[in-house]
């Protein structure tokens, strides 16, 4: 009788297929109207203007400046992802081993930037790095430099600012993976004679790789399409593909060519994500 009751409750708790589709439908409609439809309209405009043409895509392939900007964008995204991993993994490891108020304090330091506008954080970096900013004034007062350094509107400034903005997206997935690792595994490795580094390399790091993969792919994809920070901190000398698309739409009003740039960026992003997924499967197999 008890088994029958449990079975009835489990069946009653499951939603039927029409009910599940009804729950998902509003989200699908919102995604279609707010994202898929505008993207499709932009891509169609790059091909039909008004007659079918490949002119805009040929322009991207024929003019080296656009390919250089695309390569610079991929290079910047790669560097930002590596820096976010190198800086974020130790912090995620510390977070996973803390408890009480110390854990809450470190978590607040990671989460509070996510609650702050990207625009505000980008302007904060301008205040820090400009010629009369805090960094240059400090170095001048200490006598380390004789004249202000050019820190703003450089590729280095873009990388540093983007790493700061996107680092929480690397830390949180790694932290989640590290918290799911049983502490007994590390203690067992220690009991078998492994040192701190050996235990970390043989146990902790391999088991945390799913979080590393998730964080890396999020940071990399967000870096490819990042607009606000490169536009404010990098200036016109350090264009990325996203700032170039914004320039074509807002300044030059060349929507068909902007659609072609967006299409190329979308193809590159999907291709790199596909490669990353294959690497992920390889990593799991290894």
From TrEMBL:
Per UniProt, residues of the ABC transmembrane type-1 domain are 70-276
Subcellular location field:
Cell membrane
Give the matching SUPFAM superfamilies: MetI-like
Looking at the keywords, is Transmembrane helix present? yes
Q: Which residues cross the membrane?
A: 20-48, 69-92, 98-116, 157-178, 199-228, 257-276
Which of UniProt's keywords are assigned here? Cell membrane, Membrane, Transmembrane, Transmembrane helix, Transport
> Which GO terms are recorded in the biological process aspect for this UniProt protein?
transmembrane transport
Query: Gene3D superfamilies given for it?
Result: MetI-like (1.10.3720.10)
The record, for Pfam families, names: BPD_transp_1
Annotated Gene Ontology cellular components are: plasma membrane
Q: Which membrane topology describes this protein? A: Multi-pass membrane protein
Where does the protein principally reside? membrane
Does this entry carry the keyword Lipid metabolism?
no
Q: What family is reported?
A: Belongs to the binding-protein-dependent transport system permease family. CysTW subfamily.
Report the protein name in the record.
Answer: Mannopine transport system permease protein
């Amino acid at each position: 009788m008890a088994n029958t009751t449990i079975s009835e409750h489990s069946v009653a708790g499951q939603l039927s297929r029409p009910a599940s589709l009804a729950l998902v439908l509003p989200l699908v409609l919102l995604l279609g109207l707010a994202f898929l439809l505008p993207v499709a309209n932009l891509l169609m405009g790059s091909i039909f203007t008004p007659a079918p043409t490949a002119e805009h895509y040929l322009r991207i392939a024929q003019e080296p400046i656009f390919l250089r900007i695309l390569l610079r964008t991929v290079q910047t995204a790669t560097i930002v992802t590596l820096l976010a991993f190198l800086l974020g993994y130790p912090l995620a490891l510390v977070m996973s081993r803390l408890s009480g108020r110390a854990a809450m304090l470190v978590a607040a330091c990671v989460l509070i930037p996510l609650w702050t506008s990207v625009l505000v954080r980008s302007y904060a970096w301008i205040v820090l790095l400009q010629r009369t900013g805090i960094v240059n004034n400090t170095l001048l007062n200490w006598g380390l430099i004789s004249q202000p350094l050019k820190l703003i509107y450089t590729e280095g400034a873009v990388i540093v600012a983007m790493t700061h903005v996107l680092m929480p997206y690397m830390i949180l997935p790694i932290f989640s993976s590290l918290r799911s690792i049983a502490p007994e595994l590390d203690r067992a490795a220690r009991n078998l004679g492994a040192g701190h580094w050996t235990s970390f390399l043989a146990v902790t790091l391999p088991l945390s790789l799913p979080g590393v993969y998730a964080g890396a792919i999020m940071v990399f994809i967000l870096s490819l399409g990042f607009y606000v920070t490169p536009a404010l901190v990098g200036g016109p000398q350090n264009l990325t593909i996203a700032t170039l698309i914004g320039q074509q739409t807002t300044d030059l009003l060349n929507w068909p060519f902007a659609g072609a740039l967006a299409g190329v960026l979308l193809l590159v992003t999907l291709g790199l994500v596909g490669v990353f997924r294959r690497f992920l499967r390889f990593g799991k197999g290894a």
